[in-house]
Structure formats: C-alpha cells, structure tokens
Specification:
With about 525 residues, the protein is of the alpha+beta class. The protein is globular, with a radius of gyration of 23 Å. The chain has an 8-stranded antiparallel beta sheet. It has 19 helices and 20 strands. Helix 16 runs antiparallel to helix 17 (about 455-475).
Length: about 525
C-alpha cells in the first residue's frame, strides 16, 4: 500500500499535523438538555472529554467535530430512545452512528450532538450474528455494529460466507452498507448492498422498523447506500454461499493501459466471468513509486519490485498496471484449478514473464489488508490524514481519464498510497438504492486514489491533486460519480444525486424530518448547521 521504509522521519512532524490542520468547533448553544440525562439510557451516556475526543474525528483525519456526548447502547432500543428524545426536543440535536469510524469526511461525526458507539452493542452479544444454514438460500443476520471479519468467522463455522467483500474486513456491517460496499467480487454479485435481503432500521423519528424489498421498501432502498441519512442500520440479513477453502491469487503486469482495460473487461464479461476469476480488481503504480517507493510489499518481493521497475524503464511507460485476480477452490480441486488458471491466462495479453502468483487460504486472502495495516501501524503511519478520492468512471471515458490523470496530473507525482482501478457491471446494481453510478453505460470503473498524507504539506498538495482531477472530470464531461462522496455545498449534492434528488429529499422529510441523522457530510441543512464541520 503506502510507502513505509523511509517514513519514520515524518512521524514527529505528523503528530502536529492533526493539531495544526483541524480546527475545534464550538458546541451548539446551550448544549444538551438536562432532561436527556433523566432517561433510562442516562447511564450509557458519557460526556467526559476523553470519551468525546475519541469520536471527534474519523479515519480520514480531515475534519473534526466534537459531540456533547457519546451513547454506548446495549440494544437498538437505546438508540431509538435517544433519537426520539432529540426529535421531540424544541431544539433537536444531531445523532451519528459510529462503527469503526472509517469514514473520511465526517459521516460518523455529530457536532454538538451525540455520537452512537455502535460497537458497544457487539461486546458480549454473540447472538447479534445468527446464521441460518438449513434454508434453501442460506443467510446471516448480523448486527449493524458487527465487523465483517467476525461475520466471516461465524459463517465459516457452517461452511458458508457472504458473496461480496470489501478489501478491508475490520469495518462494520452498517458502515459499509450505508455506502455500498464494493470489492473484487462485485462484478459478479454486485456490491454488498445488492446482497441484503432485510434490514432493521431506527429512523430519524426514533421508530424501529423492519424493511425489505417487499416491506417498507422505500426505507429499504433508501438506507442501502444512503450515507446514514434515513436511519441507523441495526441489523442486516445477508445472502450466503458455500465458502471455498483456498484461493489461487495472481497479479498480472501491463505497461499498456489499452491492453490492461481490454483484459479486465474480458474477465468480467459473460462466460468469462462465470468460468474464470471469482475476484477481479486492478491497480496503477506510478513510475516514481516503483523507483523511489518501498522495495517490498506484503505481496511483491524486492526482486519483484526491481523487475517491475525494469519493465517501466524498458517500455517507457509512465505507469505499470496490474490485474489482480483470484480463483477459489477446495483441496481436492488442486489439479483442476491449475488447468483452469492456465486456460484463463492464455486468453490474456499481460507482459510475458510478469505473472506473480500465490496460493493462500480463503481467510488469508480475504484478510490480506490486515498485513498491510500491521506494517503501516508499526511505522506509525496508519492514523495519518487520508485525503482520498474515489470515483466511478464510465467505461467509454476510462482511457481519457488515464491519459489526463495518470499520465499528466499525476505524471511526475509520488504520493504515498495506492491507486485502485477495476471495472464493474452496472446490471448488478439496483438503481432503486441511493448509491449512485454513472448513467447510460453497462460497465464502469472504480478508481480509488487512496492517499496518505505524511506531513502538513502533503495534505494541501494531495487536496490540490484531487481538485485538479475533479476539475478535469468536470471540464471534460467525464460523467463520473463520486463513491464515498464529499461536496462542500448542497448544490454539489444535488448534482451528485441528479434525478434522484427529489425522491431523496422526500424520503428525508419522511424518515428524518428534523435532519438529525449523520449531519457531518452536510447533505441537508440542519439545526446543527451553525456548528458545521471544520475542513482541513
């Protein structure tokens, strides 16, 4: 992922980055009503500075907003009681659920209000993950506070697993479902939100509702990918499939983007997608990151990195592209998986001799980012500012994007981080859900610029790079949509949601009429607007 070998010098300077970049916000006038502390949940409300400081920023470390209190609920009913109190108050206060706090622009923040520590419901409550394996279509009921890593452990005991995974497993079920939940299996099964059968949601009026495609369907489709705007997801019923035991994991190197994207699109199309890889992603590595970055990674050895740098030098390419693929199998399928992999590779046009392959367990593959996390934490560069930019790019414009972004805007850059680039099939997404994808194309690419800022100067520099990318996309009419979106005005949000905006505002008025929930992204104006989030 990010460079780690020479980052130690940045650690001390980074310790001042947060203090220097994030401005503290004033509390809402008058603070919280004393009547709140007369409720039955009073013992679960913490107002001490240590508690509120822990939830005043998120993984992005780009914004800061201090709540007045933190609720540690034991049950969803505790969350409902809090929201009902706020909704019925003369001055409703913000409420934001927080799982792992892995948002990066304030979704999990509640300026002047109450942050709900969702993880409190998962401590000592094993019944919050229930697997139904005997059904014709097996499923798992998982609390919104549960980590996907724990869902994996529970379902594997039954020989089952969810079909779609984000790259990082230490995220909560409710957290990823409030965005979409994408990963290398999405080309075949859609995002995580497309694999949900039922939800329990606490709305912005404090009502506890069960919803599905057939019951309270407007709330079901609104909450999935809804950025926390319509309710707090407290339970999700997720479809399961038989879990494999092992994974043949491969990375294929390309120096030419046309060949790279052509092969990626082949892998997710029709028969090839059913008979080939079970997982398809891709990465872009800029030239300078090969020559000046880390000399080894959890996947690539020093020899591999040198070989890739030599490929870039020999071909004159400004970047090296990788297809990352995986085939699932069981122990008794060893011979057939070799044959299957061989047939698949024969159809692709990667650089000869640039096949990098590993054989790992299914759990090792799904939890692969934990090793990168361990490396970054050991260098004290995990909890740094993350000025990320995630875009969905129409297939028809991906080569234009590559030419102007990777070869021009980022052509001489060497940012710490990783660049993801892989295609998905739009037909696997349900347009009734709130999550947005590019219009009028059957295939679109996700491009993730997952930067890490290692100094004060890096924050500003990377933000400028992101702005340049967005400016190009706007001027060139690329037609992209942001994933994990961030806008500084309601006009920006209105343009993002496009034709869905009218429906979204009506649903907001129905399920959160006081604009209480998850105000950190400033999608809707709320009573907490005076305490809006400070932007780095």
């Amino acid at each position: 992922m990010a460079r780690t070998r020479f980052l130690a010098f940045a650690i001390l300077s980074f310790l001042t980055v947060v203090a220097g970049q994030l401005r503290p916000l004033p509390a809402l006038a008058g603070g919280l009503s004393g009547d709140l502390f007369a409720l039955g949940i009073a013992s679960r409300l913490h107002t001490d500075r240590n508690s509120t400081a822990k939830v005043s920023t998120d993984f992005g470390h780009m914004v800061e907003a201090a709540p007045e209190a933190v609720l540690h609920p034991a049950t969803p009913a505790d969350i409902a009681a809090l929201i009902r109190f706020s909704a019925s108050s003369p001055a409703p206060f913000p409420v934001a659920p927080r799982g792992q706090g892995h948002s990066w622009r304030g979704q999990a923040l509640a300026p002047g209000g109450v942050v709900v520590d969702m993880r409190s419901m998962g401590r000592g409550h094993r019944a919050r993950i229930n697997v139904s394996a005997a059904d014709a279509e097996p499923y798992v009921d998982a609390g919104g506070e549960q980590l996907w890593a724990d869902v994996l452990r529970a379902t594997l005991k039954h020989g089952l697993a969810p079909r779609v995974w984000t790259d990082y497993l230490r995220l909560t079920v409710g957290g990823t479902l409030s965005n979409a939940g994408i990963g290398g299996q999405a080309f075949r099964h859609g995002p995580q939100i497309a694999n949900v059968q039922e939800l329990d949601v606490v709305t912005g009026t404090g009502e506890m509702m069960t919803c599905s495609r057939d019951k309270n369907s407007d709330l079901f489709f609104a909450a999935l990918g809804g950025l926390g705007q319509f309710g707090v997801i407290t339970r999700a019923r997720i479809r399961l499939e038989p879990a494999p035991k092992r994974v043949r994991w491969v990375r294929l190197a390309y120096s030419d983007v046309v060949t790279f994207t052509k092969d990626q699109q082949l892998l997710i199309s029709g028969h090839a997608s059913e008979a080939g890889f079970d997982y398809v992603e891709g990465q872009v590595q800029l030239n300078r990151s090969l020559t000046e970055g880390s000399k080894s990674t959890p996947f690539f050895s020093t020899v591999d990195i040198n070989k890739l740098a030599g490929l870039a030098s020999r071909t004159g390419s400004s970047a090296i592209y990788y297809i990352e693929g995986a085939m699932y199998y069981n122990e008794d399928d060893g011979a057939s998986i070799d044959q299957k992999m061989g047939v698949m590779l024969e159809q692709l046009s990667f650089e000869p001799g640039f096949v990098f392959m590993k054989d790992v367990t299914y759990v090792q593959f799904l939890d692969r980012v934990s090793e990168e996390e361990r490396v970054l934490r050991s260098a004290s560069v995990w909890e740094v500012p993350h000025p990320w930019l995630n875009l969905f790019i129409p297939r028809s414009r991906i080569l234009d994007f590559d030419a102007h972004v990777f070869k021009d805007i980022l052509g001489d850059a060497n940012p710490a981080g990783v660049i993801l680039m892989y295609p998905m099939n739009k037909i696997k997404w349900d347009d009734r859900m709130t999550a947005m994808t590019p219009a009028n194309e059957d295939v679109f690419y996700t491009v993730g610029l997952l930067w890490s800022a290692l100094s004060v100067e890096d924050v500003e520099r990377l933000e400028k790079l992101n702005d340049s990318v967005l400016t190009f996309c706007d001027k060139a009419s690329i037609g992209c949509k942001q994933y994990l979106p961030h806008f500084t005005s309601q006009d920006g949000w209105r343009q993002h949601f496009g034709s869905k905006w009218g429906k979204i505002t009506k649903l907001k008025a129905k399920y959160d009429p006081h604009n209480i929930l998850s105000p950190g992204q400033r999608i809707f104006r709320s009573p907490a607007d005076a305490a809006s989030i400070a932007v780095a």
